[in-house]
Design brief:
This protein is about 5% helix and about 35% strand. The chain is mainly beta. It is globular and about 90 Å long. Residues about 225-255 and about 375-385 have low confidence and may be disordered.
Length: about 600
């Protein structure tokens, strides 16, 4: 007894097996089904994890069924108003929602299937669905099939078959009857299985598909894939050697993919969100005392917007500033006796889309209030208490690249800078050498300034900005600041030379980091501009993306189902490009395929290989 060690029992090995089906009532894959539900009994207790959102019923039911767990039995009851279609195969796919009680081991893709007719439909459709802009797999994307050919069916009727795409974009629909179908993709924002919201992502094929037993049959997966055995007889000597040699694991020679997909019949869908077509005034704002903002749903012509102020005379003067996207107007009030009012009322006329889809001028009255916060009331309204915020590339710790100009960007209308309060020096040992410069205002953004000067690579500089070097129209001044910056050595960078061919037309070429943040972009026309150079690249991995700019507007254009217009195609270079310090990388790109992206460069589609 003194040698015994007291401890708790281990409980045995951990349970890693999912529940096993013992029986189904009626039997799974029954025909002439006329019951009001079914039940499935398992060999152990289980839980249903998020079954209301996970369960895929194809074709969809009009009423939600009732699902209960009674001990080790799952019971599903159809709604009393549900009417099943004649001679139709119904599939209830629980995906991975059925898990054992203790360890949460799921049954993968458990399905209960029955037919109201005399046969279980056994044809299948497989494929992939991706985002049309970045060719990535999305979340909660449905694939729907309609047996009717009307283009309005996705908006008005439930589909004949439905499934949810996996997290790598792959989809599969089983138990389909032979026939002609139209196939769609949908991100169902309101969970009604209809494409009825303008904000819902949607995908469609340009033509219908034909399902037949010759081309769309996937064999049933056996319980285990057995190695194909060699049928050639062995000699007695070889048999003796085999008995004396350790037998290795059998090699699986069967292609498991034949139970997952249909070679040569994989459908690819690319979903998109159609641009908003309705113009209206989205909102108004007065975050600053002297700035009034009008935001429209679509780009607007400033000439189509008429603005008048209530109870105001000549003091209601202002400057107009329109955003880069032409959908936001900012009115910068210039008279303090006017913008010091707590409430300002505007009489507006602007374009708005009516119920028939026509653009018309409407009149509106808008009041905007501004109240100072408690913290600002104590400082008074003098201009000295207000800072002039600015952004500059001189704040980068690593320095600026060779050929890059110092930039200052402000968020309010600016006066011309006072260059007597701005000085630039080049550092040489302990000396500061005066550096000449000029400042130019950007032609497209009057709140952006460039410092034009000769900056030498691998050199250090200091730009002294005294108070008042920059000031806006309200008399707000910048604070005194010294910007110590350097121009980086060209040897720290790499260079990429890209040669393109295989396409004629406009291309938007985007060089991106591996997170798909755009580093550089170029708008070119092939074959006239077939070679592009990207200089001064930081040494790291990059991706390349090409947008086929078919309409020539200089940006990616989304699709429109109602106009039968697919989104503009995009494609990716097949691999990541590693740019090395001091190297010149030369890559040739044959733009032969559209909407192509290798799994190796995809953060979502690569999951297919992991599984």
């Amino acid at each position: 007894m003194s040698c015994a060690k007291v401890s708790s029992p281990t409980g045995g090995p951990r349970d890693e097996s999912p529940p096993v089906v013992l029986s189904s009532e009626p039997e799974n894959e029954s025909v002439y089904f006329d019951e009001r539900g079914f039940q499935v009994t398992f060999d152990e207790y289980f839980v249903l994890d998020n079954v209301d959102q996970v369960l895929m019923i194809s074709p969809p039911l009009n009423k939600k069924p009732k699902i209960q767990v009674r001990g080790k039995t799952l019971k599903l009851e159809l709604d009393e108003e549900e009417v099943l279609m004649d001679s139709m195969t119904y599939s209830f796919n629980f995906l991975n929602s059925i898990k054992d009680l203790n360890e949460n081991n799921p049954i993968e893709n458990f399905k209960y299937v029955f037919s109201t007719g005399d046969v279980i439909d056994s044809l299948s459709v497989t494929g992939y669905i991706y985002d049309a802009f970045n060719l990535e797999a999305g979340e909660e994307i449905f694939v729907l099939m309609h047996s009717g050919m009307s283009d309005t069916l996705p908006e008005t009727s439930l589909p004949a078959y439905i499934t949810k795409a996996a997290d790598n974009g792959k989809f599969r629909i089983d138990n389909i009857a032979a026939g002609e179908y139209k196939i769609y993709g949908l991100k169902d924002d309101n969970n009604n299985k209809l494409f009825d919201l303008p904000t819902e992502a949607f995908a469609y094929l340009d033509s219908s598909i034909f399902i037949s037993a010759d081309n769309n049959y996937i064999p049933s997966r056996p319980d285990s894939l057995v190695a194909v055995q060699d049928t050639v007889s062995a000699s007695p000597e070889e048999e003796i050697m085999e008995t004396e040699t350790e037998v290795s694991e059998p090699v699986i020679n069967e292609d498991s993919l034949k139970y997952e997909r249909i070679p040569g019949r994989e459908y690819e869908l690319f979903y998109f969100i159609t641009d908003n077509k309705k113009q209206y005034l989205m909102g108004t704002d007065r975050t600053l005392q002297y700035m009034l903002q009008l935001t429209f749903a679509l780009p607007v012509d400033t000439g189509s917007v008429s603005i008048q102020f209530a109870d105001a005379g000549e003091e209601a003067s202002y400057l107009t500033d329109i955003s880069a996207g032409s959908d936001t107007l900012k009115l910068w009030l210039t008279d303090s006796s006017f913008y010091n009012r707590e409430r300002i009322t505007l009489y507006l006329e602007y374009p708005e889309t009516d119920s028939l889809g026509n653009l018309q001028q409407v009149a509106d009255t808008v009041s905007m209030r501004y109240r100072e916060t408690t913290s600002r009331r104590g400082t008074g309204r003098g201009t000295a208490a207000v800072q002039l915020p600015l952004r500059t590339n001189l704040s980068q710790p690593s320095g600026i690249k060779p050929g890059q100009k110092p930039v200052f960007i402000f968020n309010s209308p600016m006066l011309d800078p006072d260059t007597t309060k701005i000085r630039l020096y080049r550092r040489s040992d302990t000396l500061q050498i005066d550096q000449g410069y000029k400042i130019f205002r950007d032609s497209l953004n009057n709140k952006k300034f460039y410092v034009e000067c000769d900056l030498f690579p691998d050199s250090s500089y200091v730009l002294l900005l005294d108070k008042g070097g920059f000031s806006n129209i309200y008399g707000h001044l910048n604070d005194s600041t010294a910007y110590n910056f350097k121009v980086r050595n060209p040897d720290q960078f790499g260079k990429l030379v890209l040669n393109l061919n295989g396409f004629e037309g406009n291309i938007i070429l985007q060089l991106m980091d591996t997170g798909e943040k755009i580093v550089r972009d170029e708008k070119i026309k092939l074959p006239e501009e077939s070679s592009i150079e990207f200089e001064y690249l930081d040494p790291k991995e990059y991706l390349l993306k090409a947008i086929f700019d078919l309409d020539g507007n200089g940006e990616w254009t989304t699709g429109d189902y109602h106009m039968d217009k697919q989104p503009e195609p995009v494609t990716y270079y097949s691999k990541k490009i590693e740019v090395k310090k001091g190297w010149e990388m030369i890559e040739d790109w044959q733009l032969a395929g559209i909407r192509k992206k290798a799994n190796a460069i995809s953060p979502t589609r690569g999951k297919k290989e992991e599984k």
